[in-house]
Design brief:
The protein is of the alpha/beta class. The protein has one domain (2-141, 155-171, 195-207, 241-257, 265-273): Divalent-metal-dependent TIM barrel enzymes (TIM Barrel), CATH 3.20.20. It contains nine helices and ten strands. The protein has helices at residues 13-22, 45-57, 78-95, 115-129, 154-162, 176-181, 190-200, 234-243, 260-273; strands spanning 2-7, 29-31, 64-66, 102-105, 137-141, 170-175, 206-211, 213-214, 225-226, 251-254. It has an eight-stranded parallel beta barrel with strand order 1-2-3-4-5-6-7-10. The protein has a two-stranded antiparallel sheet with strand order 8-9. β4 (102-105), α4 (115-129) and β5 (137-141) form a beta-alpha-beta unit. α1 (13-22) runs parallel beside α2.
Length: 275
């Protein structure tokens, strides 16, 4: 199985690769720039080359880079939206230093403009920044539906994809906490939810999993992650998720409230439960 967690990018790519190996991971997620702001460090080519060698030697799976939380492609304020366009374009340029990986982002919050308008605006931004020559697949993340989040159900994600011209460059990252909080019962009806995903979006679009337990009841629309096995999903449902034929070969990224030791423990546990 390909499993890892979020790592700090502050010391560069090779340091992340080494840290992943120490944690027992063979993939990881990282923020392309400050998650709460917008600044990005210059990329050191030698560091990237050293990382790519390390990743190859250790049979790493695809990386799942994460856009900053402040990026809102359907913001009502033009300056915020412009900032999103610039960040997205720059991040996709930077992603090409590590070709063929994933770049995941929260579609955005429509802030009272309505989901339909939000969907249009997000697709418009993607049409501006996606390039035919890029090797990165951009992943739309399934959201919990908190506030005015777009992507609260499979239909909204599909609607964005349909409006994007180069949609062969798009995929989906399924967040287990978010979809449960959004009303998809992956505890009692995992097969049904996966069938629905296939019918609405298509399983060929499913590229990565954010594997999180949740503090909330089904359909709470809250988005509060919990440690593996300690929330409403529970260890049995999570075991079914990681071994499901449609999911088991995807990179699983933990975003649980943990320190390094906690992540190492969860990674070891999940590997032991993987068939």
């Amino acid at each position: 199985m390909y499993i890892g967690c979020h790592l700090s990018a502050s010391k560069g790519y090779k340091a992340m690769g080494k840290q992943a190996i120490e944690l027992g991971a063979n993939t990881f997620a990282f923020f392309t720039r400050n998650p709460r702001g917008g600044s990005a460090k210059e990329i050191d080519i030698k560091d990237v080359e050293a990382f790519l060698k390390l990743a190859e030697e250790n049979n790493f799976g695809k990386l799942v880079a994460h856009a900053p939380y402040t990026m809102n492609a359907c913001a009502e304020k033009e300056n915020i939206r412009q900032f999103a366009i610039e960040m997205l374009a720059d991040d996709l340029r930077r992603m090409e230093y590590t070709p063929g990986n994933y770049y995941n982002f929260h579609p955005g919050s429509h802030v009272g403009q309505g989901a339909e308008k939000g969907i249009e605006m997000i697709a418009e931004v993607l049409n501006m920044v996606l390039k035919p020559e890029q090797t990165t697949t951009v992943l739309l993340e399934t959201m919990a539906g908190k506030g005015s989040e777009v992507g609260r159900n499979f239909e909204e994600i599909r609607a964005i994809i349909d409006k994007v011209e180069l949609n062969d460059k798009l995929g989906v990252c399924l967040d287990t906490c978010h979809i449960w909080d959004g009303g998809y019962d992956i505890v009692n009806n995992l097969d049904g939810v996966i069938e629905e995903f296939d019918r609405v979006i298509g399983l060929d679009r499913l590229k990565a999993i954010h594997l999180n337990d949740t503090m909330n009841e089904l359909n709470a629309h809250k988005d509060r992650h919990e440690k593996i096995g300690q929330g409403h999903l529970g260890i049995e449902a999570i075991t079914r998720i990681i071994n499901h034929p449609a999911l088991k070969d995807k990179p699983f990224i933990l975003e649980t409230p943990n320190d390094e030791a906690g992540y190492a423990k969860e990674i070891a546990l999940l590997k032991s439960l993987s068939n």
